[in-house]
Amino acid sequence: ADALSDGKLIVALMDEGHFTNSGHFIVLRGVQDEKILVADPASVKRSNQEWELGIILNEASRRAGSGGPFWVMSA
């Protein structure tokens, strides 16, 4: 949440849940009213709604390597 509040993007690898049935990358793009904004390449509907941080944390992949399931992107 701190990185998002600082204007950074976060790539997230998600497991089965609200965003995917098997595995899927989304981009966390900001915070609004204490909820997370996402960019989901598979769904405009999911991209246009606000998400509880707990949902994202609970559905993040536990199998991700290389520092995942979250990668903070900064310029």
Strand and helix layout:
Blueprint: H1 2-5, E1 9-14, E2 24-32, E3 35-39, H2 44-47, E4 50-51, H3 53-59, E5 70-73
Antiparallel strand pairs: 1-2, 1-5, 2-3, 3-4
Give a written overview of the molecule.
This protein has a five-stranded antiparallel sheet with strand order 4-3-2-1-5. A hairpin with a 2-residue loop joins strand 2 and strand 3. The protein starts with a helix and ends with a strand. Helices cover 20% and strands 35% of the residues. The radius of gyration is 11 Å and the shape is globular. It contains three helices and five strands; from the N terminus they run H-E-E-E-H-E-H-E. The longest helix is centred in the C-terminal third of the chain and has 7 residues. The chain is an alpha+beta fold and 75 residues long.
What are the main properties of this structure?
globular, 20% helix, alpha+beta, 75 residues
Q: What is the end-to-end distance? A: 18 Å
Cα shape:
globular
What order do the SSEs take from the amino end to the carboxyl end, as H and E? Answer: HEEEHEHE
Q: How helix-rich are the residues, as a percent range?
A: 10-25%
> What's the number of helices?
3
Order of strands in the sheet with most strands:
4-3-2-1-5
Largest sheet: 5 strands, antiparallel
Strand percentage, roughly? 25-35%
State the total count of DSSP E strands.
Answer: 5
Low-pLDDT ranges:
none
Helix/strand/pairing class, anyone? alpha+beta
Radius of gyration: 11 Å
- On the 0-100 scale, what is the average pLDDT? 92
